[in-house]
Write a structure and sequence with these properties.
The protein is an alpha/beta fold. The protein is 45% helix and 15% strand. It folds into two domains: 218 residues, Glycogen Phosphorylase B (Rossmann fold, 3-Layer(aba) Sandwich); 185 residues, 3-Layer(aba) Sandwich (Rossmann fold), CATH 3.40.50.2000. A seven-stranded parallel sheet has the order 3-2-1-4-5-6-7. It has a six-stranded parallel sheet with strand order 10-9-8-11-12-13, with helices on both faces.
């Protein structure tokens, strides 16, 4: 940002659609890790939280480091008109580029234009606080806010992409990422797509950067061993995820139905809530599984962890649905693997980067109920095989999802692509 002088020490400005968001704990973990490394940053939330904030780290960061503002108020409108008076050509050109590059997605154009006053307001606040580089999480509005601050005020910025809507035509996303200093992507599947499929001018500026696992999981890893089931006890299955079609809970329920019909003793616990709950409960009744399937609803993380560690197997059957955000690598799969819980899941999106069929878990094709049932049975009937898979899974997830290693890589990207001086490795 030009025409201002400040003596505040340089820091990062991290723009997020909503902070905190219950299903974005991976972002919270990254922020806590950056803070632990001594990185100075502020969080700029484009929306106020919609759910109660319960996690201690989220409460602290939202109170101490986060700037909030409504979309249109006296401060945002003042920022807009002040900038328009100072830089009418830059503002007009930015608006024109949003309309031109986004013409294939008119609804997104409206959203991107609506965010301009708020982005400019945060830009002034950030400059006064010493922000010298912006980092936007997700491919949509946060990266637009960062892009505005570059085009209008000359600030540098980078993107963190976690999936979202990157697989349908999106010319404005390509334009934005072409203007970013670098892009960090949370899975090889997403990273390869951005490098090869959307027409970037400098695909070499796109880098893979996995998330780290929740420390509350990692605290249990050193002492966690494979759980041996007592003979005659039912196999305890657990599935964790929002009750939406992309999670494939219906496939798992039908697979359990086939196994129960063959005499297999199973108990499935489903953790999560969502709009598909009534339909899934109806399916359980149709399959005559009321005694075998329990819906636990949304639970606190500590309760989820307790349920997870008392399960014999973790099962999730994700699928891709056009127009809906895809899963990359669901965190719950990585968490189960770290805790040496055998995993059965589907060959979709980035999951095969972590789950290798027959080596670190079992993979089946999407919507293949028979194969999913067979995979569950094969793991349940061979404790030795289940333990071999679980031991190998713990090693693999420990390598890919090592929080400190991944933060090292992220800090290196900031160092290589920006002029902001950040602390090095511990």
């Amino acid at each position: 940002m030009d025409e201002q002088v400040t003596l505040a020490p340089p820091r990062l400005g991290i723009i997020i659609s909503m902070f905190p968001e219950l299903h974005e704990t991976f972002i919270l973990r990254e922020l806590v890790a950056l803070e632990r490394r001594g990185v100075d940053f502020d969080i700029y939330s484009l929306q106020f939280p919609r759910d109660p904030i319960t996690l201690d780290d989220a409460i602290r960061l939202s109170t101490e480091r986060t700037q909030y503002s409504s979309l249109f108020n006296l401060r945002t409108l003042t920022a807009f008109f002040k900038t328009l008076l100072r830089h009418p050509l830059r503002v007009s050109m930015a608006i024109a580029k949003v309309i031109y590059h986004g013409r294939d997605r008119p609804k997104d154009v409206i959203k991107n234009l609506a965010i301009l006053p708020l982005a400019l307001h945060f830009g002034y606040v950030g400059w006064d606080r010493g922000v010298r580089h912006w980092h936007g999480h997700w491919a949509n509005i946060p990266t637009t806010a960062c892009w505005y601050l570059q085009k209008i005020h000359g600030d540098t910025w980078s993107a963190a992409i976690h999936g979202e809507d990157i697989f349908s035509p999106n010319r404005f996303l390509t334009h934005k990422l072409n203007n970013a200093n670098f892009t960090a992507v949370c899975s090889g599947y997403f990273c390869n797509h951005l490098k090869t499929e959307i027409g970037l001018e400098t695909p070499e500026h796109v880098h893979l950067n996995y998330h780290g696992l929740d420390p509350r999981v990692m605290n249990h890893v050193p002492d966690r061993t494979f759980r041996q089931r007592d003979a005659g006890d039912p196999v305890s299955l657990i599935s964790i995820g929002r009750l939406v079609p992309t999670k494939g809970h219906d496939v798992l329920i039908k697979a359990v139905g086939k196994l129960v019909a063959k005499g297999q003793k199973l108990q499935l616990n489903i953790v999560g809530s969502g709009p598909g709950e009534a339909e899934l409960k109806s399916l359980v009744e149709q399959e005559n599984l009321s005694d075998h399937v329990t819906f636990l609803g949304a639970l606190a993380f500590e309760d989820v962890l307790d349920r997870l560690m008392n399960a014999d197997m973790f099962c999730l059957a994700p699928r891709l649905i056009p127009g809906q955000p895809p899963d990359g690598i669901p965190n719950v799969i990585a968490e189960a693997m770290a805790l040496r819980i055998p995993v059965v899941t589907t060959r979709v999106s980035a999951i095969p980067e972590l789950v290798v069929d027959g080596e670190t878990g079992r993979l089946v094709e999407v919507d293949d109920v028979e194969s999913f049932a067979d995979a569950i049975a094969s793991v349940a009937e061979s404790p030795e095989e289940a333990q071999r898979l679980s031991d190998a899974a713990a090693v693999r997830v420990g390598h890919l999802f090592n929080q400190e290693k991944n933060i090292d890589e992220l800090l290196t990207l900031f160092k290589d692509y920006t002029s902001v001086s950040l602390p090095g490795r511990e």
